């Protein structure tokens, strides 16, 4: 297949900074696609010009309709770092495309600051909420964040301060690589929201905790009080055991059935950026708790399915792993989850009642797998002294399909 679609990264230094090959792709295009800022950098050459529409898919399909002609898409910096190249790579065969990256914002920012790029969290809030950043909050962590526009630095500063990370240092690097490059620095808790900042900017953050900050690890077993709940919560110790049995792997999908406050699904998502999860919960109040916890703990993309399983499972994408934490004795529930699993998928179910334990024993007889019982006691104050207070023992069944 002959490549017909080129994606060329541009910087603030314009066409002069491109390689001869990249300039030839731009000059020879029959159709140029880009934002107004990009297209303005290219002198009129007779090519048809398309600017991005909303929704973006309309322009992507307009590009597809020109298959076989010379189409050049102009992008900012490296098209494959949260750029348009990612979207187009999902739509078009790699054999059809030629991608020529430019120096991207992350590389430029790391060079300006002397930060090892491999040690930085590189992410974007362009078209995305700030909440996913919560998963990266840690003392000394360094972030490079692509902004939505000139208002993003003030919004991020306020977000950090509200979460107790007000001492964090921000550097806003605007229009990098061009003659109008500039830097603005400050501290989150005293950031001046009235500052005028170019829309094209990247924010460098050095995370510094305040007295009220709380750093939470990505490893399973968050403190119970990290979640808002009504008592329907898989306790910390058992949560760690359960996540170990579910064995999250990058890119995989979890069903958290009878999710309660969503703790299992949320901890699953915190293990790796590419993981996905659906929390199935019949109680609308608890479904709202799941949404609150997901936003607070940095995984707002958690899908919440409101309904009662097994009926609510119909039509969902088959999972790589499933956890049944509520309603384990519901007739047909374990069987429905097992049938939906992909080959090699893991099913884990917990029970605290005799009825639930009986359902797990029946599942073990029918599908194999292993059963364990977990008993945990916590040291608590008992009058003037201390003593061990046992939690309800939990029976866990796990199996691989």
Topology, pairings included?
Blueprint: E1 5-10, H1 20-27, E2 31-34, H2 36-39, E3 48-51, H3 56-64, E4 71-76, H4 84-91, E5 97-100, H5 105-113, E6 121-124, E7 142-146, H6 152-162, E8 169-174, E9 182-187, E10 201-206, H7 236-246, E11 253-257, H8 263-270, E12 276-281, H9 284-296, E13 303-306, E14 321-324, H10 333-340, E15 346-351, H11 354-367, E16 370-374, E17 377-382, E18 385-390, E19 394-400
Report on the architecture of this protein.
This protein has 401 residues and is of the alpha/beta class. The protein has three domains: 98 residues, 3-Layer(aba) Sandwich (Cobalt-precorrin-4 Transmethylase, domain 1), CATH 3.40.1010.10; 101 residues, Tetrapyrrole methylase, C-terminal domain (Methyltransferase, Cobalt-precorrin-4 Transmethylase, Domain 2), CATH 3.30.950.10; 177 residues, Vaccinia Virus protein VP39 (Rossmann fold). It has eleven helices and 19 strands. The longest helix is centred in the C-terminal third of the chain and has 14 residues.
């Amino acid at each position: 297949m002959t490549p017909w679609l080129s994606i060329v990264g541009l910087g603030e230094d314009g066409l002069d900074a491109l390689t001869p090959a990249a300039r030839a792709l731009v000059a020879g295009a029959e159709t140029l696609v880009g934002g107004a800022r990009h297209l303005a950098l290219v002198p009129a050459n007779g090519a048809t010009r398309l600017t991005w529409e909303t929704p973006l898919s309309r322009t992507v399909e307009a590009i597809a309709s020109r298959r076989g002609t010379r189409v050049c898409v102009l992008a900012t910096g490296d098209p494959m770092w949260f750029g348009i190249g990612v979207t187009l790579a999902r739509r078009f065969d790699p054999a059809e495309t030629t991608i020529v990256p430019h120096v991207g914002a992350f590389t430029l920012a790391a060079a300006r600051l002397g930060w090892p790029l491999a040690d930085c969290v590189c992410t974007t809030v362009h078209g995305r909420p700030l909440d996913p950043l919560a998963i990266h909050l840690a003392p000394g962590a360094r972030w490079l964040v692509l902004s939505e526009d000139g208002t993003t630095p003030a919004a991020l500063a306020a977000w950090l301060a509200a979460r107790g990370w007000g001492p964090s240092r921000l550097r806003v690097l605007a229009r990098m690589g061009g003659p109008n490059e500039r830097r603005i620095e400050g501290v989150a808790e005293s950031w001046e929201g009235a500052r005028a900042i170019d829309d094209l900017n990247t924010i460098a953050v050095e995370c510094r905790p305040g007295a009220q900050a709380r750093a939470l690890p990505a490893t399973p077993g968050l403190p119970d009080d990290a979640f808002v709940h009504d008592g329907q919560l898989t306790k910390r110790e058992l949560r760690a055991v359960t996540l170990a049995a579910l064995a999250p792997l990058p890119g995989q999908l979890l069903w958290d059935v009878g999710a309660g406050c969503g703790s299992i699904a949320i901890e699953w998502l915190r293990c790796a950026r590419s993981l996905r999860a659906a929390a199935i919960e019949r109680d609308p109040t608890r479904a709202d708790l799941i949404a609150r916890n997901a936003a607070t703990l940095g995984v707002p993309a958690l899908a919440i399915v409101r309904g009662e399983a097994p009926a609510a499972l119909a039509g969902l994408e088959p999972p790589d792993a499933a956890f049944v934490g509520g309603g384990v004795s519901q007739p047909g529930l374990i069987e429905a989850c097992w049938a939906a699993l992909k080959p090699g998928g893991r099913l884990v179910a917990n029970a605290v009642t005799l009825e639930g334990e009986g359902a797990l024993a029946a599942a073990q007889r029918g599908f194999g797998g292993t059963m364990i019982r977990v008993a945990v006691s916590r040291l608590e104050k008992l009058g003037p002294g201390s003593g061990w207070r046992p939690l309800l023992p939990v029976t866990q069944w796990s199996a691989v399909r």
